[in-house]
Write a structure and sequence with these properties.
Strand content: 15-25%
Number of strands: 5
CATH class: Alpha Beta
Number of helices: 8
CATH topology: Nuclear Transport Factor 2, Chain: A
Number of domains: 1
Largest sheet: 5 strands, antiparallel
Radius of gyration: 17 Å
Strand order of the largest sheet: 1-2-3-4-5
Shape: globular
Length: about 220
Amino acid sequence: MDRNNKILGLQVLLVCACLFVHGGLAWANDPQSTMQATVENVMEILTEPALAGDDHWQERREMVSEEVAGRFDFAEMAKRALAQTWNERSSVEQEKFVTLFKEILKDTYVERLKTYSDGSYKVVFDKVLIRGDKAVVNSLVTQQGREISAAYKMYQKDNQWFVYDVVIEGVSLVSNYRSQFISVIQKEGYEELVHRLEEKIAESKSSANASKEIS
């Protein structure tokens, strides 16, 4: 899994960057407006004076995680990332995998918000493509004069829009995870994949606790 870390790091970083949006108005209740509302809520959390400073970072982190979790369908993303192996797992295994996958994504990109919340990344939503209950919300991420394309794939359920994939410069976040997961499963088995995800989450929590103790 390590050989794709740089690509995943870029993707996750840009997903975080897309939380800082500067764009035009969108029609109410469409996919772009939905993302805009999430962005505004996240920004309110990050800029709340009462939560400023490193001492309150873990509190802000949890609040941001909860906000993002309400817009990203981690269960659908996990299912797509596991591909055909998903149907081979029991309902209990599927539920556990969704929990692990959700924690991996949240721990990775929410943590990066602390570093990139200074506004150094700017995002402009330029167009939205809607076909039935599916949509692609396109955007351009600008950093130091460089523009990088980023698109949210979304679907509509019960009049709400949810993200099920993010595509950066033509590379799908879900597809990238899928290739890594399948490689581990084919070489070492599904149980080993679960073990690696559990280890990664444990390391992340240990690091967060150590940081909290130091502060």
